[in-house]
Inverse folding.
């Protein structure tokens, strides 16, 4: 039996581009039967300060120019998605969440764990840095609650999770998500770019 193509994806749960990227990865799995190797990258590791919030635009500032879409809005449109309306509001560290995914890999439940965490944050407005939230989400996909709690307290998979900026750059990841397809990197690309790249890559002799 020929092996299933494995597509590594560097991602972080708090990144809106990765919320789109998760949908793209799921689409790849459904269309091409590929396996996704989820690689955890922390945009805001513990030692890094969160960036300041952008100041709100005063209501008094008006313009006669028509509203133009942002790059992020175009990404949602390209994927046929609506912008999220229920995302958790606040700063979130994601190391614990990535630790849970590493635990899930040991019992072949990584896809389910990744999906639960993305949906919890972006659709249900949950704080995925909260220990009780994480343990509940782990239990929802069949992970042992005691194991899940130990992982998010002890960080046994710390070396599998890459921090921004320098460590990430050293691995060739400058943006998340980054899809590794056929020896090339695709960062923040629409599915219409990813699809032909993947279609060509899986024609390689080892998958034919």
């Amino acid at each position: 039996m020929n092996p299933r193509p494995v597509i590594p994806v560097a991602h972080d749960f708090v990144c809106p581009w990765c919320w789109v990227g998760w949908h793209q990865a799921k689409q790849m799995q459904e269309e091409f039967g590929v396996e996704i190797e989820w690689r955890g990258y922390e945009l805001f590791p513990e030692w890094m300060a969160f960036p300041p919030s952008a100041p709100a635009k005063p209501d008094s500032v008006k313009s006669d120019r028509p509203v133009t879409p942002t790059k992020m809005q175009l990404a949602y449109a390209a994927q046929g998605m609506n912008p999220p309306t229920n995302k958790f509001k606040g700063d979130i560290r994601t190391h614990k969440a990535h630790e849970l995914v590493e635990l899930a890999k040991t019992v072949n439940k990584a896809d389910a764990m990744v999906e639960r965490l993305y949906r919890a944050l972006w659709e249900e407005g949950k704080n995925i840095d909260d220990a009780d939230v994480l343990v509940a989400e782990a239990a929802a996909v069949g992970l042992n609650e005691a194991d899940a709690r130990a992982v998010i307290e002890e960080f046994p998979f710390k070396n599998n999770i890459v921090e921004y900026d320098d460590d990430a750059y050293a691995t060739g990841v400058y943006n998340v998500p980054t899809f590794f397809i056929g020896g090339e990197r695709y960062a923040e690309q629409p599915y219409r770019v990813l699809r032909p790249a993947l279609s060509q890559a899986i024609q390689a002799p080892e998958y034919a």
DSSP finds eight helices and five strands in the chain. The chain has a mean pLDDT of 94.
